[in-house]
Design brief:
5 helices, 97 residues, single chain, mainly alpha
């Protein structure tokens, strides 16, 4: 039973991760690597420490830019709609729809 629950959790995480990848406007791979580093690290206390995590294969500058550019461009005419879409997608995935 525990294996089935783990398998389902992994499937849900991968689905969420894919939705995140498609919902991010820029630096998709950087954001995904940041999620990987965050989800497997319980001791990093700074962005610099996260940039040194083995699952984050880029440099600090990439990490910083990935965080800065995480949301869609605020100057984009569809900015509000894109943010709402991201929020709704994530809320649905965690059962808050």
């Amino acid at each position: 039973m525990e294996n089935q629950e783990n398998s389902q959790s992994i499937k849900e995480f991968l689905c969420w991760r894919e939705n995140l990848y498609h919902g991010v406007n820029a630096r998709k791979e950087t954001v995904i690597e940041l999620v990987d580093a965050l989800s497997s690290n319980s001791i990093a206390s700074s962005v610099v420490e996260l940039s040194e995590h083995p699952l984050f294969r880029r440099d600090y500058n990439s990490l910083y830019k990935g965080i800065q550019e995480f949301l869609p461009d605020k100057n984009d005419d569809n900015y509000s709609q894109q943010v709402i879409q991201l929020r709704m997608s994530n809320m649905k995935k965690i059962g808050l729809n």
